[in-house]
Amino acid sequence: MTDSKLRQRMATLHRKLVSRTRGWWSAHGNTALRLAVLLMAVVAAVWLSYQFWRLLWQTAPSWRTTPTGAIDLKILHRLVQLWFVGQPVYPELPGALYPPASYAMLWPFLGWLQNGYPLINAAEVIVNHASP
Hints:
Elements: H1 3-56, H2 71-85, H3 100-110, H4 118-130
Helix pairs in contact: 2-3
């Protein structure tokens, strides 16, 4: 088979594939999109509920190699605390990759509270002071 005949054959196959795909999509596209959205919503709900459980109630690691829950929040809380106390952050902690302006932006959320769950405690303080 020559090069031009091979190209012609490939172009014909491509046109058929595109035609079949468009036909299938016009007949089943809405259903496919609805199923995709439903699948993503279920996966997101399962994953977010697991991570929320880890954030609030996990006491032991899930596996030997994983830390206990909310590790990112704990690391950022520690970095912000160290930064505003005046201790060196970058040489001592290898996870300190954020520029200094990040600590100033995170301080209202992480810096002025003393434990590992600042956003939840901030909401609790607001609710307790707002109620009569």
